[in-house]
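Q: Hi! Curious about what MaoC family dehydratase looks like structurally. Here's the sequence.
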Amino acid sequence: MTYYIDQLEPGMSASTAKTITDADLVLFAAVSTDVNPAHLDEEYGKSTPFGGRIAHGMLSAGFISAVLANQLPGPGTIYLSQTLRFKAPVRPGDTVKATVTVKEVIAAKNRVALDTVCTVGDTVVIEGECLMMPPKRPAA
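A: Let's find out. The predicted structure is below.
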């Protein structure tokens, strides 16, 4: 479903969740070319303040994009901006839940501002805000 600007209102929310696998880390490293050993080498990860491997922060942030593109506002939505604050590490085996919530509808400019958050259980791992341009309603 796609939500058009006249269908959006503050408080509307949508979420998705994904469990991070070893394959996800390898595939994300290949696509992004981010081969930091903190993500791929357990022995190296043990020597870091995290005590083991952690997922790429942008992998978890990508789940925010999935909610925006697939659910709210939905297909045809254009990302205009995003802030991200990384609050805690995500590890292989963790289930990341991304949630977006409409904060403000700017109908005159066909824009919507949303709060964005990713959690693992009760722990916030990413928080931020984004600005989106929902698709225009097709001409009748």
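A: A fun detail: Residues 57-70 form the longest helix (14 residues).
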